[in-house]
Write a structure and sequence with these properties.
InterPro entries: CoiA-like_N, CoiA_nuc. With about 350 residues, the chain is α+β, with helices and mostly antiparallel strands. It folds into 3 domains: about 50 residues, no CATH class; about 150 residues, 3-Layer(aba) Sandwich (Trna Endonuclease, Chain: A, domain 1); about 140 residues, no CATH class. The protein has 10 helices and 15 strands. Strands 5, 6, 7, 8, 9, 10, 11 and 12 form an 8-stranded mixed sheet that branches. A 3-stranded antiparallel sheet has the order 13-15-14. A two-stranded antiparallel sheet has the order 1-2. Helix 8 packs across helix 9. The protein starts with a strand and ends in a 16-residue tail after the last strand.
């Protein structure tokens, strides 16, 4: 904690003197000033003190980072440290007041935190019409990009798309992993940019994004290895396809696509398309309703390990878009024909294995 009360006035630990009666601005309990030669000054509750504002033990990285972030955002508005919000029992690490715009609460997250805690804090800020910036410390910057990070912390920023923000205390600069997406084979992608000031953050990405190239032979080889090692995620997909008379290694080439999606499709958009199509053409009818297709889309999404909801977004629009795109492709290839609000099966697609007399697995 960097801010405490002294005789009714807020005081920064950097300017505090020893042997004073400091107290916590939230719970009004006594706090102690720690002012050594190797660590920057800070206040701490006394042992076994229970503060009304939920908190966590602060490392030197966290304490230093809060001051650095205060300087980074300084030209964006009036910035203060450790703003207490009693209505939602939260203490923002930094607070930015912007004239005529929503205030911004900056959460510099260095310690482990669960998704439900991030969601609870985020919803709390939103109730007060405050925009929360989750900025991550070194613990998170070393992690591989995956759903765990995206689910908790990925947010939308103008000019950066879906992104993650990190703060490098040692070099006093921001890292932004931006334009997060997933390719059809299930791989996560990002572009990383380092920022030295708030103007660069406001300006957005100025560099063209690289062209996406997919290695389908490598993908098939990996699928074969996953089947051989009985990887649960792939086995679940194979079992669903087997029930329709197909094999995961026989996915038709016409289903392959360079379309990118929100990073919510688990094992990837291609396997989702294969599951939906396999189950669609295995139905014992020739006319398919929209309700049936909706049901197959959701069922297949679960089978590929799709993620329905993150703290900042849901998969609803991405799933609907993927469903519409698949139907357009099947109609264009002559497998389906739209009739009113339903679809008529015209012919059934062939899978790769169906064109061979013998297949070694």
């Amino acid at each position: 904690m960097l801010i405490a009360l002294l005789k009714g006035k807020l005081i920064d630990a950097a300017y505090a003197k020893r042997l004073q009666d400091y107290c916590c601005p939230a719970c009004r309990q006594r706090v102690t000033l720690h002012h050594g030669t190797r660590v920057q000054p800070y206040f701490a509750h006394r042992p076994r003190a229970a503060c009304t504002i939920l908190g966590e033990g602060e490392t030197q990285q966290h304490l230093m980072g809060k001051r650095q972030l205060m300087a980074f955002f300084d030209s964006w508005g009036t910035v203060s440290l450790e703003r207490i919000l009693p209505d939602i029992q939260q203490r923002a690490d930094c607070w930015v007041e912007r004239k005529g715009q929503r205030p911004v609460a900056i959460e510099f997250q260095c310690s482990p935190i669960m998704t439900r805690q991030v969601a609870w804090r985020t919803r709390g800020y939103q109730k007060l019409n405050v925009y929360p910036f989750w900025i991550l410390g070194s613990r998170y910057s070393k992690q591989k990009l995956g759903w765990s990070l995206i689910e908790r912390f990925a947010t939308w920023l103008r000019g950066w798309g879906l992104c993650l923000l990190f703060w490098d205390v040692q070099h006093q600069r921001m890292r932004i992993d931006h334009h997060l997406y997933q390719d059809a084979l299930g791989n996560y992608h990002r572009r990383t940019t380092w920022l030295l000031n708030i103007d660069e953050l406001i300006a957005g990405n100025q560099v063209p994004l690289p062209k996406l190239v997919l290695d389908y032979p490598k993908w098939r080889s990996q699928l074969a290895r996953d089947l051989h090692t009985k990887r649960p995620a792939v086995l679940a997909i194979q079992e669903a396809l087997y029930a329709t008379g197909h094999h995961v290694l026989d996915v038709p080439n016409f289903l392959m696509t360079t379309t990118v999606t929100l990073p919510v499709f688990g094992q990837g958009l291609l396997l989702w398309r294969a599951l939906v199509m396999a189950q669609l053409f295995a139905l014992p009818v020739l006319r398919i309703t929209g309700t049936t297709i909706d049901s197959l889309a959701v069922k297949s999404f679960k089978t590929v390990g799709g993620h329905q909801r993150a703290v900042w977004f849901s998969a609803d629009k991405a799933l609907h878009k993927a469903q519409c795109s698949l139907l357009v492709d099947l109609v264009a290839l002559g497998y389906l024909r739209p009739i009113d609000e339903n679809w008529q099966i015209c012919r059934r697609p062939k899978w790769v294995g169906e064109t061979k007399s013998v297949r070694e697995r």
